[in-house]
Amino acid sequence: MGGVNTVERGPKQDRSRATRQRLLEAAVACLAEHGWAGSTVSVVAEHAGVSRGAAQHHFPTREDLFTAAVEYVAEERSTALRALFPEGTADRRAVVAALVDLYTGPLFRAALHLWVAACDEDRLRPRVTELEARVGRETHRIAVELLGADESRPGVRETVQGLLDLARGLGLAHLLTDDGARRERVVAQWATLVAEALD
Amino acid sequence: MGGVNTVERGPKQDRSRATRQRLLEAAVACLAEHGWAGSTVSVVAEHAGVSRGAAQHHFPTREDLFTAAVEYVAEERSTALRALFPEGTADRRAVVAALVDLYTGPLFRAALHLWVAACDEDRLRPRVTELEARVGRETHRIAVELLGADESRPGVRETVQGLLDLARGLGLAHLLTDDGARRERVVAQWATLVAEALD
């Protein structure tokens, strides 16, 4: 009996996981494109080709769906970032450029909409604050590792933190205008400053 | 007759200017507190103690009011920043700290709400993009002046630009949590790195 159950449950769970994943990806795309006001569970369900009931089975509330979505995509991005530098520590200029890239895509855009919405929505704020702290710690950990930064030395921790703040600020500047050319020059110069500070 | 007109117009113009100013200040406070969705001309007029008709006389559309408000407060902040350092060039660490402070108050919060709203609103986007470029250039000009930065030297322009991006990123981090203690440490470290880069 157990065997039959396992066989039957396998594909069902796979389907369930695939549905969940489609919802999460659609939620981030929707947030990035339409902002918080235009992002409801129904809109995302339709976008993902999933029934509203199935969407609500996975994510009972709008807050559940969108915080899970931003977390899921952030984890995907972290995995992709580590995969770019399989040896761990890598050329610091390349690492700085890859870190900044984390903040110029749809994930950052989606996260930004969520942050700003969280300012005004009491149900959203504590969850986004907690999520942001968790994602921020993980990004910091990866940055330290890939930059080969020795945080026991004074100033190194703050150098890495400031680099991630810079990346966030560059992402914000990118929101309304494509300032890729300017960003590249700033990143080149600041990569040099960071590399010198970490040496 | 000319004399009578002048006498009569004086106080009227003063009142009109004072009304305009009250509306602009109320608009920024409202945006910072309630976001774009909660910020209408009516809400701001009530907040400023001005009739809706008078508000619409000054600012025919919502876009007019809020872009004018962010610009007005940005100019006030620039003036205040220059007044902090009356001699022009000043101690670079103090200048870096003052620049970062520009991005952690209600003006930045209001501007951020306006930027994010502009992503989704076609009528708002070109005006906010243009406003942001203008305010950005002015802030850069002040930063170069107060830091005594020689932009003819390679990398200096990008160092100053990156510093303002860093400040913007720190402002964004401040949005949901009061991370003043962390910010102070990051600013201290990066003020040193920027000062070295400019020397």
UniProtKB/TrEMBL annotation, chains A, B:
Gene3D superfamilies: Tetracycline Repressor, domain 2 (1.10.357.10). Keywords: DNA-binding. InterPro entries: Homeodomain-like_sf (IPR009057), HTH-type_TetR-like_transc_reg (IPR050109), HTH_TetR (IPR001647). PROSITE patterns: HTH_TETR_2. The keyword DNA-binding applies. Residues 40-59 bind DNA. Residues 17-77 form the HTH tetR-type domain. One of its GO terms (molecular function) is DNA-binding transcription factor activity. Pfam families: TetR_N. This is TetR family transcriptional regulator. The lineage of its organism: Bacteria, Bacillati, Actinomycetota, Actinomycetes, Kitasatosporales.
